Amino acid sequence: MNLHQTIPTRPPLYAVTLIDRRTGYPHRVNGAALTAFSRDPAQAARDLLAGRDPNQWHTRILPLTGH
């Protein structure tokens, strides 16, 4: 790479967690919060909510930083 080339950047990474609206807590599977890590958080949220009642579930999207 020469000095005039730029390093390609990737979209930021996000943690998308499934939240139970009744409790306000993350849904857990074997004690671990159900979380997807994705560079496309909207698609990850759709995937986590697929087949679930939107009155009972929502997602929390948090950006992950490398700092």
Automatic annotation (TrEMBL):
This is Uncharacterized protein. It comes from Paracoccus liaowanqingii.
